[in-house]
Design a protein that fits this description.
The structure holds 2 protein chains of 2 kinds. By secondary structure, chain A is an all-alpha fold. Chain A has 19 helices and 4 strands. Chain A has one domain: Cytochrome C Oxidase, Chain A (Up-down Bundle), CATH 1.20.210.10. In chain A, helix 2 packs antiparallel against helix 3 and helix 11 packs antiparallel against helix 13. The longest helix of chain A is centred in the first third of the chain and has 35 residues. Chain B has 8 helices and 15 strands. Chain B is of the alpha+beta class. In chain B, strand 13 and strand 14 form a beta hairpin. Among the domains of chain B are: about 110 residues, Cupredoxins -  blue copper proteins (Immunoglobulin-like, Sandwich), CATH 2.60.40; about 90 residues, Cupredoxins -  blue copper proteins (Immunoglobulin-like, Sandwich), CATH 2.60.40.420. In chain B, helix 1 runs antiparallel to helix 2, helix 2 runs antiparallel to helix 3 and helix 6 crosses helix 8. Classes of the chains: A mainly alpha, B alpha+beta. The interface between A and B is large, with 93 and 95 residues.
Chain lengths: ~625, ~350
C-alpha cells in the first residue's frame, strides 16, 4: 500500500493561502465575491441617491460615470460569477461523488487570479479615477483619445487577469464533470445544478476567449498606440461592439444557467418531488447555451446593421423564450402535487419563478427590433436586465446559499432573519426595478447622471431609490444572519433538510476533506433519494475503505497571481522593468510547478475514523 | 377548472384598465407611449402587441404558481411522500408549441416592421434631408437641400418625410426622439446610419442622446420643432439672411474676435461649433438650460439669464464640453448675452 509522503500541512492564514481543497476554495470565492457584492451594492445605492430627485448634485458627473461603470463591472465579473463559482466549487464535486475537482492546483490559481484582477480593478478608485466608459467600454469613448486617464487601463488589465481565473475555472469544471463522476453517475443521472454548471462552463470556454481578444486589442490601442478601433487609421469601432457582445450575451447565460440549476434543486427538494421533465430540462439548458451564441447582435439593433441582420437576430432571440418557458413550466409542475415547504431557501426559489418570468417576457419584447429602437439604452433595458440578473440570478444565489449553507459550514442559517432578508430584498427589488420599465418608456435614457424636473420622472425615481435602500437593508440582515449563525454549534446531520435527494446530502455536514470515505455507487437519478426509497441507510460504496490520495497544498498559485498583479501595474504605467519583474515571478512559479515532483499525500482509513467520520 | 377561469375573467377588466393607462401615459413630447408620428406609432403598435402577449403569459404563470403554492403547501406534520412524477409528454409538448405559436404572432409583424422602417428616403426629393452630426455634447443639423446648418434645434416641416443621415464627430452617441421615432446610433468614420420619421402635428418634441458619451451625456438634449410648410420656408430664409452685428462697435468687435471664430450667426462666423442664428427664440441654451420667462427649476431661466450663465462658465453647466471659459468681463458677457437674446427669427 502506497504511503503518504511527508507533506507540510498548514494552518491558519497559510492554510487558506495554500489550499487546493475545492470546498475551501469555494469559501474563498464566497468571501471575495461577497465582498465585491457589497462594494457593487454600495455603488448602486450611491447611484440611486444621485437619482432620487431631479437635478441632484450628490456626486459629480464624472464620479457618476465611474460609479455606473464599476457597479456593472463589479457585479458581473467580481460578484455574481465568483459567488456562482463558490457554489459550484462547494457542491458540484459532492453532487457527482468526486473527492475533488480534476485540477485542484488550477482551481486555486483560478481563484487567486480572479481575486487579484478584481483588486487591481478597484485600486483604480485610489489612483486618480476608476473606469468610466460603462461596463461595455464602447470605443471610441474608451479609447485613449476620449478616456485619457488610467481608468479604462485598469478595466482592461483587471478583467484580463480576472478572466484567466474564470477561464481556468470553467475548463476545470468541464474536465471534472466529464471525468470524475462516481460509478453509475451517467450524464442523464447528474443533478440539474451539475448540468447547469457543466453547460455554463462550456459557455465560459467559448465566450471568455472572445472577451480576452477584445481586451488585448483595446489594451494594444491604449498602451501601444495600435489601431484596432482607431477609425482615422482604418480601425472599426463596431468591431468592438461585436466582440464584446459575442462574449457578453453568453455571459448572461453563464450567470443565469447555474441559477436555473439551483432553483431546480431547491424546488424539487422542498416539494419532496422529483424534478418534473428532467430530460427536457437538460435539453432546454443545452439549447439555451447553444442559442446564447446566436443572438449577440440584439444588443446592437440600433448600431445600424441593416434590416436583414436585425430580423434574423430578432427571431433567434425570441426562440430562446421556448426553452426558457419549458423550464418555468417544469418548475411549476415539479411543485404541482408536491408537498411544498416554505423555508427561506424555497421562498427565494419561489420568488425567483414569477420574477424571472417578468424579466423573460420583457426580454422577448426587447427582441422585437423595431420596438427595441424605442427601448434600447433606456431604463426599460435597465429594468429588464436587473429583473433577469437580480430577480433571477441573485434570488437564485440566495436560495442556493440558504440551501447549501449547512453543507458548506455545518450550520443552518437563521430562518427568522432569513425571512426578513427575503421580504425586504424581494419587495425592495420590485419597488426599485418595476417602475424603471415605465421610466424608460416615458423617455428616460439609461446612464444619465441627472434628469430635468417637470418631465414626470420624479415620483418613480424616488420609489426606485426607496426600493434600493430596502434591498440594502435585506443584505445587511443577511450579513447579521451569517454572524449569528457562525456562533452556533456545528451539530447537523448529513441530511439536515431531511428531504435531500442528491449525493451531497449523503456525507457529513460540512463535508470532510476527502468528501467520500468510499466512492458511492450511483443507482439512479436523485441517487440518495433512490436509496432512501429503497429503505437503505445511505449510499452503497463502490470501493473498499482504503487510503485516499490527496493533492498537496501550494503557495504557488497565490504568488503567480501576485506576479500578474505587479506586471499589470508595470504595463499600465509604462514601467517595463516592473512589468518584467512581475512576469518573471509568474513564470518562475510556473517553472517550479513543472520541475518539482509533487505526489500529494494519503489519508489513511484509521485517520478518518479518528476524526469521527462514519466509514 | 371553472374556478380558474373566474380568476382570469376577473383579471381581464384590470388588464384593460392597465392598457388604457399605458396608452395615456406620459408627455406628448417625450413618451414612447404617446406617439406623435407614424414611425413611433408603428413602434408603439408592436410594443402593444408584445405587451399583450406577454401579459397573457405572465397571468397564466402567476395563476398556476398561486394555485400550486396554496393547494400543495405542506401541512404541519405531513410526512407523506408525493408521487414522483417523471414528466408528461402531452403537457411538455403543449408548453413548447404554445410559445412557438405566440412567437410567430409576434415575429411576423416584427419582421415586416424591421424592413418597413429600413426604407431609404435619402434619394427621395420630396423628403427633407437632414444630416445629423453628434458632438460631445451637442447636435449639428445640416440641411443640404437648403444650404442651412443649425444646432440643438431641428426645425422640420409637418408635411414631409424627414430623412436622417446620422454620424458622429467623436464618440458614439444615439439620436432619439421618443415621441416621433426610435433611436439610431451615430457611428464615427464613414459608417453613416439612416432613418426616417414624420411629425404631422406641429409642436416641440424632446430629443435625447441615448448612448453614454461622457460626463455630460445627461445634458445632451435637443429639440425637434415641427412647423407648417410656410413657417419652415420663412425659417430657412431667416437662417440665410445676412447677420446683424451688435450695434455697439466695441461689442461687435469683441463678438467677432471671441465668438465668431467658432460659432456662426447668419452668414458670418465659423462652422465647427454650434450655429447661434436666432438664439433669441431658441427653446434652450446649450441644450439643457431651458429658456422660459417663468423659471421654476434650477436649469430654467430667461434666454438672457441662461446665456449669461453659460458663457460665464460653460464647464459648470456641461462638464467636459469643448467651450472654453472665454476671457470676458461680466459687462462684456452681459452685452453679448443681450445681443444674442435679441436675435430672433420671425417664422
Amino acid at each position: 500500500m502506497a504511503h503518504g509522503h511527508a507533506v507540510k500541512r498548514y494552518s491558519g492564514l497559510m492554510d487558506w493561502l495554500t489550499t487546493v481543497d475545492h470546498k475551501k476554495i469555494g469559501v474563498l470565492y464566497l468571501i471575495a465575491g461577497g465582498f465585491f457584492f457589497l462594494i457593487g451594492g454600495l455603488e448602486a445605492i450611491l447611484i440611486r441617491i444621485q437619482l432620487w430627485k431631479p437635478l441632484n448634485d450628490f456626486v459629480s458627473p464624472d464620479t457618476y460615470n465611474e460609479l455606473l461603470t464599476m457597479h456593472g463591472t463589479t457585479m458581473i465579473f467580481l460578484a455574481a460569477m465568483p459567488i456562482l463559482f463558490a457554489l459550484m466549487n462547494a457542491i458540484v464535486p459532492l453532487q457527482i461523488g468526486a473527492r475533488d475537482v480534476a485540477f485542484p492546483f488550477l482551481n486555486s490559481l483560478g481563484f487567486w487570479t480572479f481575486f487579484f484582477g478584481g483588486v487591481l480593478l478597484n485600486v483604480s478608485w485610489f489612483t486618480g479615477g476608476a473606469p468610466d466608459a460603462g461596463w461595455t467600454s464602447y470605443v471610441p469613448l474608451a479609447s485613449d483619445t476620449y478616456s485619457a486617464d488610467k481608468g479604462v487601463d485598469y478595466y482592461v488589465m483587471g478583467l484580463q487577469i480576472a478572466g484567466i481565473g474564470t477561464l481556468v475555472g470553467g475548463i476545470n469544471f468541464l474536465v471534472t464533470i466529464i471525468n470524475m463522476r462516481a460509478p453509475g453517475m451517467s450524464f442523464m443521472r447528474m443533478p440539474m445544478f451539475t448540468w447547469s454548471a457543466f453547460i455554463a462552463s462550456a459557455l465560459i470556454l467559448f465566450a471568455f476567449p472572445a472577451l480576452t481578444v477584445g481586451l488585448v486589442a483595446l489594451m494594444f490601442d491604449r498602451l501601444f498606440s495600435a489601431n484596432f478601433f482607431n477609425v482615422a487609421n482604418g480601425g472599426n469601432v463596431v468591431l468592438w461592439e461585436h466582440i464584446f457582445w459575442i462574449f457578453g450575451h453568453p455571459e448572461v447565460y453563464i450567470l443565469i444557467l447555474p441559477a436555473f440549476g439551483i432553483i431546480s434543486e431547491v424546488v424539487s427538494t422542498f416539494s419532496r418531488k422529483r424534478l418534473f421533465g428532467y430530460s427536457s430540462m437538460v435539453f432546454a439548458t443545452v439549447l439555451i447555451g447553444f442559442l446564447g451564441f446566436m443572438v449577440w447582435a440584439h444588443h446592437m439593433f440600433t448600431t445600424g446593421l441593416g434590416p436583414i441582420a436585425n430580423a434574423l437576430f430578432s427571431i433567434a432571440t425570441m426562440l430562446i423564450a421556448v426553452p426558457t418557458g419549458i423550464k418555468i413550466f417544469n418548475w411549476l409542475f415539479t411543485m404541482w402535487g408536491g408537498s411544498i415547504r416554505f423555508n427561506v431557501a424555497n421562498l427565494f426559489a419561489i420568488g425567483f419563478i414569477p420574477t424571472f418570468v417578468m424579466g423573460g417576457v420583457t426580454g422577448v419584447m426587447l427582441a422585437a427590433a423595431p420596438a427595441d429602437y424605442q427601448y434600447h439604452d433606456t431604463y426599460f433595458v435597465v429594468a429588464h436586465f436587473h429583473y433577469v440578473i437580480v430577480g433571477g440570478l441573485v434570488l437564485g444565489i440566495f436560495a442556493g446559499l440558504f440551501y447549501w449553507w449547512p453543507k458548506m459550514f455545518g450550520r443552518m442559517l437563521n430562518e427568522g432573519l432569513g425571512k426578513i432578508t427575503f421580504w425586504t430584498f424581494f419587495i425592495g427589488f420590485h419597488l426599485t426595478f418595476f417602475v424603471q420599465h415605465f421610466l424608460g418608456l416615458l423617455g428616460m435614457p439609461r446612464r444619465i447622471y441627472t434628469y430635468q424636473d417637470g418631465l414626470g420622472l420624479n415620483g418613480m425615481n424616488l420609489i426606485s431609490t426607496v426600493g434600493a435602500i430596502l434591498m440594502g437593508i435585506g443584505t445587511i440582515v443577511f450579513l447579521i444572519n451569517i454572524i449569528v449563525t457562525a456562533k452556533k454549534p456545528k451539530n447537523l446531520s448529513n441530511d439536515p433538510w431531511e428531504d435531500g435527494r442528491t449525493l451531497e446530502w449523503a456525507i457529513p455536514s460540512p463535508a470532510p476533506e476527502y468528501n467520500f470515505a468510499q466512492t458511492p455507487l450511483v443507482r439512479g437519478y436523485d441517487a440518495l433519494w433512490k436509496e432512501k426509497m429503497d429503505g437503505n441507510k445511505g449510499m452503497t460504496p463502490a470501493e473498499p475503505l482504503g487510503p485516499i490520495h490527496m493533492p498537496s497544498p501550494s503557495i504557488l498559485p497565490f504568488i503567480m497571481s501576485i506576479g500578474l498583479f505587479i506586471a499589470g501595474f508595470g504595463f499600465m504605467y509604462n514601467h517595463y522593468i516592473v512589468a518584467i519583474i512581475g512576469l518573471v515571478i509568474t513564470f518562475a512559479c510556473m517553472f517550479l510547478r513543472s520541475v518539482i515532483d509533487d505526489h500529494g499525500f494519503h489519508i489513511e482509513p484509521d485517520e478518518m475514523h479518528d476524526k469521527g467520520v462514519k466509514g | 377548472m371553472m374556478n380558474r377561469w373566474h380568476v382570469v375573467k376577473r383579471l381581464l377588466p384590470l388588464l384593460a384598465v392597465m392598457a388604457l393607462l399605458l396608452s395615456a401615459c406620459g408627455r406628448e413630447d417625450l413618451s414612447t407611449l404617446n406617439p406623435q408620428g407614424p414611425v413611433a406609432e408603428e413602434q408603439f403598435g408592436l410594443m402593444k402587441l408584445s405587451i399583450s402577449i406577454m401579459v397573457l403569459v405572465v397571468v397564466v404563470v402567476f395563476a398556476i404558481a398561486i394555485y400550486v403554492l396554496i393547494r400543495f403547501r405542506r401541512r404541519p406534520g405531513d410526512k407523506t411522500i408525493p408521487v414522483q412524477v417523471e414528466g408528461n409528454h402531452k403537457l411538455e409538448i403543449i408548453w413548447t408549441v404554445i410559445p412557438l405559436v405566440l412567437l410567430v404572432i409576434l415575429g411576423v409583424p416584427t419582421i415586416q416592421s424591421v424592413f418597413g422602417l429600413a426604407k431609404d428616403y435619402s434619394k427621395d426629393e420630396n423628403a427633407v434631408q437632414i444630416k445629423v452630426t453628434a458632438h460631445q455634447y451637442w447636435w449639428e443639423f445640416d440641411y443640404p437641400q437648403y444650404g442651412v446648418k443649425t444646432a440643438q434645434e431641428m426645425i422640420i416641416p409637418t408635411n414631409a418625410v424627414i430623412s436622417i443621415e446620422a454620424k458622429t464627430a467623436d464618440v458614439i452617441h444615439s439620436f432619439w426622439i421618443p415621441s416621433l421615432a426610435g433611436k439610431i446610433d451615430t457611428n464615427p468614420g464613414g459608417n453613416v446610419n439612416r432613418m426616417y420619421f414624420e411629425a404631422p402635428k406641429s409642436g416641440v418634441y424632446l430629443g435625447k442622446c441615448a448612448e453614454l458619451c461622457g460626463p455630460s451625456h445627461a445634458y445632451m438634449d435637443f429639440k425637434v420643432k415641427a412647423v407648417d410648410e410656410a413657417s419652415f420656408e420663412r425659417w430657412v430664409a431667416g437662417m440665410k439672411a445676412p447677420a446683424e452685428m451688435p450695434s455697439d462697435p466695441e461689442i461687435a468687435e469683441l463678438f467677432a474676435s471671441q465668438c465668431l471664430t467658432c460659432h456662426a450667426v447668419g452668414d458670418k462666423g465659423g462652422t465647427i461649433y454650434p450655429n447661434l442664428t436666432g438664439m433669441g427664440d431658441r427653446l434652450a441654451v446649450a441644450g439643457f438650460l431651458i429658456n422660459t420667462d417663468d423659471p421654476q427649476y434650477k436649469n430654467e431661466g430667461t434666454v438672457y439669464d441662461n446665456l449669461v450663465r453659460w458663457i460665464a462658465d460653460p464647464q459648470e453647466v456641461k462638464p467636459g464640453n469643448n467651450m472654453p471659459k472665454v476671457d470676458l468681463t461680466q459687462q462684456e458677457i452681459e452685452a453679448i448675452a443681450k445681443y444674442l437674446s435679441e436675435q430672433k427669427l420671425d417664422y
